[in-house]
């Protein structure tokens, strides 16, 4: 647990730092410096290998940092949505933790809500309102 908390704090800080304009500017400067040095090194294979290796390493590491922050953000959003469902009178508590259900169950829920949406659109074309709370 302690290692996970450390990694989460590190990933959050690193992702926040890497998303700043200064870091982007630094990355552009590195690429410009690499391009400018091309003629000095005769556009050699080693010259190309430097940028390829560097960008591959940075990309590989950033994928894990981004995925960690995205997972945490998604989990927080799901908890907030669950709380809104729980606290709303008339909301269907069966929709809590929907993201953890099997694909077939999700498809069944989706089909019910798509049918509700189609019915609401049909009501709109008749000039009626679509603000009711029909049961799925």
TrEMBL record:
Segments passing through the bilayer? 21-41, 47-66
Gene Ontology BP term (one): transmembrane transport
* Keywords, comma-separated and alphabetical: Membrane, Transmembrane, Transmembrane helix
Instruction: Show the InterPro entries listed in the entry.
Output: Iron_permease_Fet4 (IPR007251)
- The protein depicted here goes by the name Low affinity iron permease family protein
């Amino acid at each position: 647990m302690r290692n996970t908390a450390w990694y989460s704090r590190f990933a959050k800080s690193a992702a926040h730092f890497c998303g700043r304009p200064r870091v982007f500017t630094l990355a552009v400067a590195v690429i410009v410096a690499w391009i400018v040095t091309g003629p000095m090194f005769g556009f050699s294979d080693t010259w190309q290998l430097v940028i390829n290796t560097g960008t591959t390493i940075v990309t590989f590491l950033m994928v894990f940092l981004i995925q960690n922050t995205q997972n945490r953000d998604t989990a927080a959003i799901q908890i907030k949505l669950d709380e809104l469902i729980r606290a709303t009178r008339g909301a269907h508590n069966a929709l809590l933790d929907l993201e953890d259900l099997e694909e077939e169950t999700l498809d069944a829920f989706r089909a019910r809500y798509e049918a509700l949406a189609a019915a609401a659109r049909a009501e709109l074309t008749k000039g009626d309102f679509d603000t009711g709370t029909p049961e799925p």
